Amino acid sequence: MVVHALFFLAFLVGMHGTHAVDYTVTNNALNTDGGVRFRDEIGEQYARQTLDSATQFIWGTFQQNNPDTRKNVNTISLFVDDIDGVAYTSNDQIHVSARYVKSYSGNVKTEITGVLYHEVTHVWQWNGNGQAPGGLIEGIADYVRLKANYAPSHWVKPGQGQKWDQGYDVTARFLDYCDSLKSGFVAELNNKLRSGYDVQFFVQLLGKTVDQLWQDYKAKYGNIA
Ligand SMILES: [Zn+2]
């Protein structure tokens, strides 16, 4: 029994060495109100856990059970910085604005959790070798946030928006409609984005052009496209 447990432990340690992702959190804004609020109301340990839970959720949403289908990322780093805006991600590094943390009225822990699900999606999603529309990239990131139940109340309602690739909440709601037509649509779309982008991906996956899908989506909610 003990021997078995030891072997299992060795197996887990081995797995860790091969596949695990490391997460780091650095608060560079402790000399500001927002940095202090981040420390007191969110905390570095919770933030690190959230980077991990978001990663697991994204792999699940993208149906990437096999590591070969995922991007090769060893470390995701989060920085709390004294910067404008909300947050941005580049090179597997997420930067959250301490000024935004300071000014947010409401449950800042829940809000930043949602922001992190969006930003961690940028780390893992494929972008069609840079060819995918920016609105689609942002829409997929907000789609993940939506499916994780961290959509803020100020988002557009289903059926709202002017065009399918408007981005963010508008595109997230549209992608959710597309996924309702064929479960796993967003996962398949993301996997197609591994090697490039073609607007015909929508036809290939759903049998209709994206413009037709957008019209159908608007009509479903009584709106005109
Ligand atoms: Zn984004």
From TrEMBL:
Pfam families: BSP. Keywords: Signal. This is Plant basic secretory protein (BSP) family protein. The keyword Cell membrane does not apply. The keyword Signal applies. Transmembrane segments: none annotated. It comes from the Eukaryota. Residues 1-20 form the signal peptide.
